[in-house]
Amino acid sequence: MPTSGRMTEPRNYAPRTSGLPMSSEPPPKFNLELPTVSQNEQETLLPSPEAFEYQLGALVQQTLPAQQSLAVYQPPAEVYDGRSEKLKALTNPAWGNSKLASVLDPSNMPFVEAAKQAQPKNYGVVRLGNIPFATKRSEVIAFLGRNSKILNDVEEPVHIIMEKVTSKTMDAYVEFMTLEDAMRAVEKHTQNQLSGRPTRLGDRPVDLQLSSQASLMKDLFPVAAGVVWKGVTPEIQPVKPNEPWSNFKGFISAEEMVMLVKHVEVPHRSPFSKECPQRPYECLISTLRKFPWYMTECITVGQRNAMFQTTRDLLRLLLKSLDKGDDTVTLNKQLLRRVAKAAMECPGFTTLMKDDIAWIVGMDDGEQRSYGQPRFASSWRHQYALVPKPSMPLDVVEWYITAIREQTMRDVFARPHGERRVIQDKALSTDGYWGYFWVEVDYPTGAAFDNMMLAHAAQVEFSAIEAILARASGFM
C-alpha cells in the first residue's frame, strides 16, 4: 500500500503506437431508437398461414434431391468398375439411371417371398414302430445301415415323433431318396424276419413298414384339424359351421411351442424328456424342416413368431447346457449346429429373425452369407415376408434399398409439418436403413397384425416397393 494516503489508478502499461498521444474520448453512443411499425404495416409484412405453408413447402422441395434418378450420387469411374455385372446392366457410368420397366422386371428385382422358396418334396418313407423311448438318431441310422440310401444327414432324414405336450416318444420315420429305396429297406427287414433273425433296436424287436409322407405329416402336426394330407401337401377342407372343432386353425398351436421349451426348462416334470434331453431339440428340427411354409395363405404372422420364439429359447437353453456340461453325450455342439442350421435354412423365418439366430450362436459374417443373409441384416426390421433373392449380388440389393430409402425420405419431407413430425418421432425408435418404408406399408398392430397371413404381408410389401420405385423414377 502507498504511504502517501492517496489511492491512484495504476499506470497504463498497454502498448501504443510510438509518438501518438493516447485518447481518452468516450465511445460513441448506441442508437437504441427502433423504428415503430403500425398494426396495419405488421399485417402487410407477415404472410398469411396459407402463404407461409406454401413458401415452406417450396423451400423443402428445393432442398430435396431431384426425382429424375434412382441413384443418390454420381459414382466415380472406379466405383462403377467395382459393381457387379448385374448392377452395371441396370445403371450407366454417369448417373446410374435406369428405366422403370427394367427396375421392376422380375428378373432384376432382388427380393422374393421367403416362404414361397420352400417346395414340397415327396421322398420315400418307412416307419419304425415299437422303438424304445430313449432311441437316438444315430441308432436309427445304424439300424437301417449306411447302404440303405436314406437322405443325406444334412437334410435331417430321421424324424422321431414326440408328443409336444407330454414329450412321450412315439414312432420314428425315415426318409429315403426314392420310394424304391424305401421298399428295398422294408424287403430286407422282411427277409430277416422270415429267416428267423428279427431285427432289434436296443432290446426291442422293431416293426419296420413302408409308410408315406402323409402319415409323417399327420403325426408331426397332430393339431392340424380340417386338413387332408396329399403326400406332403395339405388340402384345407371347407369350414363346417356346426363342427367348429374340426375346422382348420393352423398347423401348430402356441401351446405346443411353449411346451417344447418347458420340457427343457423343467426336465424333472417331463419324465420322458429327462431320459432323452435331446428329444425336444430334434422335434423342433423336424418341425422346422417339414413345416409346409409354402402354404402362406394358411400361416399367420403370430404362428410363425411362436415358432421363432421357441427356436430362440431352445438355442439359448442349449448353449447354457453346453456351458454347464449337463450331458456331453446328447447335448453337444453337433446338436447345436443342427438346430442352428435348421433355423438358418428355414424358409419361413425373416432376415431379421435369422440375424438374431446368428447372433445367439456367434455365427461369423462369412457363414451368414452362405445362408443368404445380406449385409446389415439387423436393419431389415419391417420386412415380414420379403428376403434377398438367392444368388443376387449384394450391391444390387443395396442399390434398390438406397432408392427406396431416398424416395421415402422425399415423400416424408414433402408432407405438412405436423404429419412429418409425428412420423419422424416414430422413426426414432426404429432403423433408418430402409428409410420410411414402414410408413408406406402401414402395417396394423396388435391382434390384427398377428392374425395377418404371410401371403397378405408379401402382397403389401411388393406393392409398396413397386409404388416407391415408380415415384423414384418419375412415374406413377
Would you write up a description of this structure?
It comes from Akanthomyces muscarius (Entomopathogenic fungus). One of its GO terms (molecular function) is nucleic acid binding. InterPro entries: Nucleotide-bd_a/b_plait_sf (IPR012677), RBD_domain_sf (IPR035979). There is one protein chain. With about 475 residues, this protein is α+β, with helices and mostly antiparallel strands. It has helices at about 40-45, 50-65, 75-80, 85-90, 100-105, 135-145, 180-195, 215-220, 255-265, 270-275, 280-290, 300-325, 335-345, 350-360, 365-370, 395-415, 415-425, 435-440, 445-450, 455-470, and strands at about 110-115, 125-130, 160, 170-175, 200, 205, 205-210, 225-230, 235, 385-390. The strands form four sheets. A four-stranded antiparallel beta sheet has the order 3-4-2-7, sandwiched between helices. A two-stranded antiparallel sheet has the order 1-10. Strand 3 and strand 4 (about 170-175) form a beta hairpin. Helix 9 runs antiparallel to helix 11 (about 280-290), helix 9 packs parallel to helix 12 (about 300-325) and helix 12 (about 300-325) runs antiparallel to helix 13 (about 335-345). The radius of gyration is 35 Å and the shape is elongated. The termini are far apart. The relative contact order is 0.11. Residues about 65-75 and about 95 have low confidence and may be disordered.
Quick summary of this structure?
This protein is of the alpha+beta class and 476 residues long. Helices cover 44% and strands 9% of the residues.
